[in-house]
Write a structure and sequence with these properties.
Blueprint lengths: L6 E5 L3 H11 L3 E7 L5 E6 L6 E6 L14 E5 L3 H10 L4 E7 L5 E6 L5 E6 L3
């Protein structure tokens, strides 16, 4: 039986630009980096307070990375959506959607990461 989620993998073309986004804009921590036996360049990142990791993979032999719209996204909780939006915009990543109030009194918004992956930000009601 499955015990727990360990990581989610996203393949990217520009590994360093994407790693920079996750570290500098979202505040994730790089926990390890290596090259796989088949030659994939791998970087693992972790959100403070979470055990699960995000694996970013650069493997040019698989062809171009084509991320379709509305296929997948990662969701992160934030304390202050407005402050996050200002921080992200200052780094060159303005919100792509929202902020929008939720039925529970919270707020959600989206920002586009490099390669076209969508990131959802959730501020729970206070």
């Amino acid at each position: 039986m499955v015990k727990k989620l360990l990581h989610t993998r996203y393949r990217v073309s520009d590994l360093e630009k994407t790693v920079s986004f996750y570290k500098d804009v979202l505040g994730l921590k790089e926990v390890r980096r290596h090259t796989s036996p088949r030659g994939s360049q791998l970087v693992f990142l972790q959100t403070p307070g979470s055990e699960e990791e995000i694996e970013l993979c650069k493997f040019d032999e698989s062809g171009p990375v084509n991320v379709g719209s509305d296929i997948t996204h990662l969701a992160f909780e934030v304390d202050d959506l407005e402050a996050f939006a200002k921080h992200a915009a200052a780094k060159g990543y303005p919100l792509s959607d929202g902020p929008t109030k939720t039925g529970s009194g919270g707020m959600i918004a989206f920002v586009d990461a490099p390669e076209g992956y969508e990131i959802e930000l959730i501020q729970h009601a206070k």
